[in-house]
């Protein structure tokens, strides 16, 4: 059996340090658990799409983790896939280049006790960028070669409630790229998809595939997108082996459950990046 810890949405910044203490506590917990690997499912930054310093800071912060770390970008790192939440922060070549120059790659593949663990850049899905085609070809290669069970990680969930929902929303992968991704996954031994982005925890099976939402370590949103989701902070323990996959929510003692709306002064600031500078203590 191999144990992987999933951390999501830490939202770190050298200028806006609201969630730095939570990050340090999460790292302490992960190092105590000493898993075989750590996956970070995106949104390492607050304003990564427009800040070299922020992406570099997030990379440096990963140095607190002792196990091998595999980080994926989210919309707060390389920008949203279109149409996105903000027209001025759509994923593009420069933003991808910034991430690549600091993190080396925006996807990964590794073996874990008879499983193949894959991570992809969700922000490319539906972007229309050449990097999307390149990633698709890479994923097809991995899935085609996969004789072993596969765990797939990415920042955004494939959908909120069901694969056939038609809403175009920044909360999940959009309908067309979702359908393309699901076609790729069909026929391959993909057992579970783990995503971040929604800042809550849910673990459901849809059409025979398990979809797990990893909670954030940073903040809660007042109204989770699904009433059945757990509105909590924390990390996930994912154990894979001959017996399948076991996912468990791990409470991290001392995490402060920051509320996003309250932090932003209930409408006073549109985005965290607009707020007065308050570096990590
Ligand atoms: Fe996030
Ligand atoms: Fe996100």
Automatic annotation (TrEMBL):
InterPro entries for this protein: Calcineurin-like_PHP, Metallo-depent_PP-like, STPP_CPPED1
UniProt keyword Hydrolase present: yes
Domain of life: Bacteria
SUPFAM superfamilies the UniProt entry points to: Metallo-dependent phosphatases
UniProt cross-references to Gene3D superfamilies, sorted A to Z: 3.60.21.10
Molecular function GO labels: hydrolase activity
UniProt-recorded name of the protein: Phosphohydrolase
